[in-house]
Amino acid sequence: MISANDLSPAELAALLHFHADAGVEWLLEEEAVDRFAEFEAMKAARRPGSAQQDRPAAGERPSVGERQTSPRPTAAARPAPASGPQPAIPDGEAVQQARFVAESARSLSELKTALEAFNGCNLKHSARSTIFADGDAESGIMVIGSAPSAEDDREGLPFSGKSGQLFDKMLAAIGLDRSSVLLTQVIPWRPPGNRAASAAEIDICRPFIERQIALAEPQAILLLGNFAARFFLGENDTIHGLRGRWKDIVIADRAIPAIASLHPQDLLTAPVNKRLAWNDLLAFQAKLKSLSLLRN
């Protein structure tokens, strides 16, 4: 075992960041647990010698109820159940609950409170933060990403970290900044290990993002990333096939023009695609000017 005293400050910081990215929130339990004694107790409970006297004599066949290779661990030998809330199981009931909770909110602040109190999605139990809309809800401009990154989860804000810094530059290039748009994510909780959200988890999160849009009433939407584009545009193509073209999405009986582009994280991975994103940003800027949402 490596002691923290053997690590340099830089190595220790890197290790802590690694644990945070992996979803580790607590390094110590509240009460000490002797895992060695617990393991020895489980081995003793499984040891066949303790059941010698109960074995049938030679030639005698055990009954069905006696056919057991080794005794089960006693209750005392079993590990204590984990404390805290158990993950919810995504199902139709959870989807219905999400719809009811979302539709009951009459403002973005009410919706944020309701979302933070909602426990019907497995993703919430492994995430550190609930990522909600941030920025100017009155701007008429909305930018929607896919799902929180590790940096978003740590900071509690959408578009954080290195991809967030690049995103800020993208906004500035067309005369915008974080304070002049409304930023949010389709999925409000970071999936463990940045895995893709399951179909059930997506169905549970859908009422909340749609209600955010309905309450904010944006006049134009920029979708960033493959998942966000597919989610709203209803197509299965990649972001390269979905980007750069306007399409109306209908939310609460309102048709809202939306355009998809590459996510900043995609651009960090493949900088050659920045020219494509720039063309999309110019198209978005032109639309905002035509709607009088951006000064010439």
Automatic annotation (TrEMBL):
Query: Which keywords does this chain's UniProt record carry?
Result: 4Fe-4S, DNA damage, DNA repair, Hydrolase, Iron, Iron-sulfur, Metal-binding
- Give the family, as the similarity comment puts it: Belongs to the uracil-DNA glycosylase (UDG) superfamily. Type 4 (UDGa) family.
Which SMART domains does the record cross-reference, listed alphabetically?
UDG, UreE_C
Q: Which GO terms describe its molecular function?
A: 4 iron, 4 sulfur cluster binding; metal ion binding; uracil DNA N-glycosylase activity
Superkingdom, natural source? Bacteria
Q: What is this protein called?
A: Type-4 uracil-DNA glycosylase
Question: What GO terms in the biological process aspect are recorded for it?
Answer: DNA repair
- Compositionally biased intervals (Low complexity): 68-81
Reactions catalysed according to its record? Hydrolyzes single-stranded DNA or mismatched double-stranded DNA and polynucleotides, releasing free uracil
Stated EC number for the protein is: 3.2.2.27
**Region annotation Disordered: residue ranges?**
44-90
Q: Uracil-DNA glycosylase-like domain location, by residue?
A: 132-282
The record ties this protein, via NCBIfam families, to:
UDG_fam4
